């Protein structure tokens, strides 16, 4: 049986820093889940994560929140994009 998780989808610089396009972490308070995710990935990912926007089900997440990220949630990690 698979443990319930929160799925993270990485884009652009977040994907490059993480070395993967998708990762997972156990459910829990947002701030704790993000800390667990950053600890499980390469160190440069934490720097990109700190600058990224986080979206789940069309709602922006506050990375410092203690609100529960439930099992089955999918979080999009959107780093700042440059354009010209």
Which characteristics define this entry?
alpha+beta, 84 residues, globular, 5-stranded mixed beta sheet, two-stranded antiparallel sheet
Notes on the structure:
The chain is an alpha+beta fold and 84 residues long. The chain is built from 3 helices and 7 strands; from the N terminus they run βαββααββββ. The chain has helices spanning 12-18, 30-40, 43-51; strands spanning 6-10, 22-25, 28-29, 53-56, 59-60, 68-69, 74-78. The protein has a 5-stranded mixed beta sheet with strand order 2-1-7-4-5. Strands 3-6 form a two-stranded antiparallel ribbon. α1 (12-18) runs antiparallel to α3.
What is the gist of this entry?
The protein is α+β, with helices and mostly antiparallel strands and 84 residues long.
Please state the overall shape, judged from the principal axes of the Cα atoms.
Answer: globular
Which strands sit side by side, in order, in the main sheet?
A: 2-1-7-4-5
Intertermini distance? 48 Å
Strand content: 25-35%
Mean pLDDT: 93
Elements, N to C (H/E): EHEEHHEEEE
CA-based gyration radius: 12 Å
Count of separate DSSP helical elements = 3
Largest sheet: 5 strands, mixed
Derived from helix and strand composition plus strand pairing, the structural class reads alpha+beta
The helicity comes to 25-40%
Ranges where pLDDT stays below 50 over 5 or more residues in a row are: none
Number of beta strands = 7
List the helices and strands and how they pair.
Blueprint: E1 6-10, H1 12-18, E2 22-25, E3 28-29, H2 30-40, H3 43-51, E4 53-56, E5 59-60, E6 68-69, E7 74-78
Parallel strand pairs: 1-7
Antiparallel strand pairs: 1-2, 3-6, 4-5, 4-7
